[in-house]
Amino acid sequence: MTNMPAAPMYGLVVQENFNDLVVGTYGRGYWILDDVTPLQQLTSEVVASTAHLFEPRDAYRFHEITSPMDMPNDPSEGQDPPYGASINYWLASEPEGDATIRIANASGETVRTLDGTTYAGINRVVWDLEGEPSTQIKLRTTPLYADWVDLGEDRWRPAPRGRTSILQPPGTYSVTLSVGGQEYTQSLTVLKDPNSEGSEANIHTQLASGLGDSCTTSRRSWKIKEMLMRSLRLRSSWTESSSLSRRNSFRCG
């Protein structure tokens, strides 16, 4: 196994909520293999097939919380898996074309399209539970008091949070793998964060009120652009007024 420590292993358990294989070592440490679902579903029929989309485990719509302070260079510090829903599929061999994964909600509306890997064997792509990102906001100027920032050959830099997207609500989604001219579909369940005090009804009401649709995402991007333009105009006005003040002060002196 990749990066498995060289130590005796006396404990093996599959975590019931996330279906992760947890290995306890004699060195009082533990090692986790994230989401063993594809290994559990890898039958002889799957291996004999050209392609197969495994049934995904449930995904939790977690929200980030403040983490405890980590000590620098902590040898016991682990690495968390990517946030979202893991989508696993089998390919008997590397296909000639690309692999595409489409996520659709219960209404059949496509909320996200992902590029998949095309390795022979088990492939994994993680959906971050967000919809399609908005258009990229490009800044054509350097930051104030930071003229040394390189804008690159195309003379632009990305804005902070230059792309925005909406975290999709809990519910049932369909996952469709398109590869080799064939399509394979499985159902995916997204669960509410169990630590959240809000209800699923609250989340759907928020989205229905226009706070979470794709149009609002685009409008939010344009508002950011307008805010940046106002900032640039204020910067220009400040520069002109400062220059005028310096000239007036020189004349008065």
Q: Descriptors for this entry?
A:
253 residues; alpha+beta; five-stranded mixed β-sheet; three-stranded antiparallel β-sheet; 4 helices; disordered C terminus
Task: Describe this structure as you would to a colleague.
By secondary structure, the chain is of the alpha+beta class. The protein is built from four helices and 13 strands. The strands form four sheets. Strands 5-13-12-7-8 form a five-stranded mixed β-sheet, with no helix packed on it. It has a three-stranded antiparallel β-sheet with strand order 1-2-3, with no helix packed on it. It has a three-stranded antiparallel β-sheet with strand order 4-6-9, with no helix packed on it. A hairpin with a 5-residue loop joins strand 7 (99-104) and strand 8. The longest helix is centred in the C-terminal third of the chain and has 39 residues, at 214-252. Mean pLDDT is 82; it is low at 238-253.
Structural class: alpha+beta
C-alpha Rg (nearest Å): 25 Å
Strand fraction band?
25-35%
Strand order in the largest sheet: 5-13-12-7-8
Largest sheet: 5 strands, mixed
The N- and C-terminal alpha carbons lie at a distance of 77 Å
The topology string of helices and strands comes to: EEEHHEEEEEEEEEEHH
Summarize the structure.
The chain is an alpha+beta fold and 253 residues long. It is built from four helices and 13 strands.
Element layout with pairings:
Layout: E1 9-14, E2 21-25, E3 30-33, H1 37-40, H2 44-48, E4 51-53, E5 59-61, E6 85-91, E7 99-104, E8 110-116, E9 121-127, E10 138-139, E11 157-158, E12 171-179, E13 182-192, H3 200-211, H4 214-252
Parallel strand pairs: 5-13
Antiparallel strand pairs: 1-2, 2-3, 4-6, 6-9, 7-8, 7-12, 10-11, 12-13
